[in-house]
Design goal:
Blueprint lengths: L4 H14 L4 H15 L5 H13 L4 H44 L3 H29 L3 H16 L4 H30 L1
Length: 189
């Protein structure tokens, strides 16, 4: 059954309101809401949406919400899910902008932000481990992740180029593996 527009808006509004730390930190909440609670996408589909959201221009949360919303209700679903995920940030930023100067330098606020940063690191680590468990499944994927990390961290190559390189390498790898499989099938016939 397809999601209602209100379900899309309210679910992504909740995700947008409760996710601190950006795209990586939202993955556990996306899994719980989109995959487990509503069944709007499988885990693999969500990871695909998430990967596409990272590769396309814009904010990962917005892109992922748009993909999930579009899958459920086409154009209007994509628009409503996107509005849902950005609405809390818009309201919070609007409110903070009006009172931020009054709290500038507040020790308690600075300590709160320090705690939030630690929690965000934990959420990002959980997302990385979750994605690795689902994505790093064989020798080729282990090799690919080691190469991607090395190219990005050691050589300083932009993440966008690493992702594009991984896309090209993945396509080539699967073409070669399909050719090998077809040769084996022909040889056994």
């Amino acid at each position: 059954m397809s999601a209602t527009l209100w379900q899309l808006f309210s679910s992504f509004c909740k995700i947008g309101a409760l996710t601190f730390g950006g795209g990586m930190a939202m993955l556990p909440m996306l899994e719980k809401e989109v995959v487990e609670r509503h069944g709007w996408a499988s885990e693999d589909e969500l990871l695909d949406f998430y990967a596409l959201g990272q590769c396309t221009p814009g904010i990962i949360a917005v892109n992922t919400a748009t993909f999930v919303g579009y899958k459920q209700r086409k154009d209007i679903g994509g628009i409503i899910a996107t509005l849902g995920v950005v609405f809390p940030s818009f309201v919070i930023i609007l409110l903070l902008a009006t009172v931020l100067n009054a709290f500038e330098g507040n020790v308690y606020l600075l300590k709160a932000f320090s705690g939030i940063r630690i929690a965000v690191c934990a959420l990002i680590l959980k997302s990385v481990i979750s994605m690795a468990r689902k994505s790093v499944t064989d020798i080729a994927s282990i090799f690919a992740i080691i190469i991607a990390i090395a190219v990005n961290l050691v050589l300083g190559v932009s993440t966008a180029f690493v992702v594009l390189g991984a896309i090209v390498a993945g396509v080539i790898y699967h073409l070669v593996m399909n050719r090998i499989r077809m040769k084996k099938e022909k040889g056994s016939v």
